[in-house]
């Protein structure tokens, strides 16, 4: 569509303004890079991905922030708290679950491993004092519905390694929860652990 024939408004008694545009004249005073661009001599700059990420201060800052966040997530994944392990007053507790593949009935084993006592154990319970540990197991399916409830094991802990384990028939079980009760003359406590069953 040609707009050259459309009259533009102007005041009465005045002649309309006429604009003349000359690209060559404008480019005479333009910087060399602009003249090269219009002549087609300038090639488009296509940096690599890394060069683009570090091209400006803002890009470098964003790249640094992304790398820092990634490192924090990795560190937390490897060294952060795990829902199947905890140390309570110097008593290390770990819930482990696994399937016993050679069993014809398809069984799942859940074991609470109690490790060697740490220094805090003697501070909390005194040397030679024993702690009664009771582990109550609940087996859950993929919908987190309880399939088997309240399988229970009890033992007396005096600072050395020991384990409390139960087995259950595999009815498409996906995880195990263990409520661990610790009882001593002056202390009643509970610790809750959860572990997914490996396939």
Automatic annotation (TrEMBL):
Supply the alphabetized keyword list. Membrane, Transmembrane, Transmembrane helix
What is this protein's name? Answer: Uncharacterized protein
Q: Which residues cross the membrane?
A: 61-79
Q: Which domain of life is it from?
A: Bacteria
Source lineage = Bacteria, Pseudomonadati, Spirochaetota, Spirochaetia, Spirochaetales
């Amino acid at each position: 569509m040609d707009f050259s024939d459309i009259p533009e408004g102007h005041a009465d008694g005045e002649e309309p303004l006429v604009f003349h545009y000359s690209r060559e004249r404008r480019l005479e005073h333009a910087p060399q890079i602009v003249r090269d661009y219009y002549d087609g001599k300038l090639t488009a700059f296509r940096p690599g991905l890394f060069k683009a990420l570090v091209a400006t201060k803002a890009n470098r800052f964003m790249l640094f922030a992304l790398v820092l966040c990634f490192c924090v997530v990795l560190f937390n994944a490897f060294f952060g708290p795990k829902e199947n392990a905890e140390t309570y007053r110097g008593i290390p507790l770990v819930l482990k679950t696994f399937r016993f593949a050679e069993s014809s009935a398809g069984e799942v084993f859940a074991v609470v491993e109690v490790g060697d006592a740490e220094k805090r154990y003697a501070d909390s319970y005194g040397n030679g004092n024993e702690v009664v540990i009771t582990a109550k197991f609940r087996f859950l399916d993929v919908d987190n519905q309880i399939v088997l409830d309240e399988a229970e094991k009890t033992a007396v802990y005096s600072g050395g390694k020991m384990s409390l384990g139960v087995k259950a028939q595999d009815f498409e079980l996906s995880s195990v929860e263990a409520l661990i009760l610790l009882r001593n003359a002056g202390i009643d406590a509970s610790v809750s652990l959860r572990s997914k069953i490996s396939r």
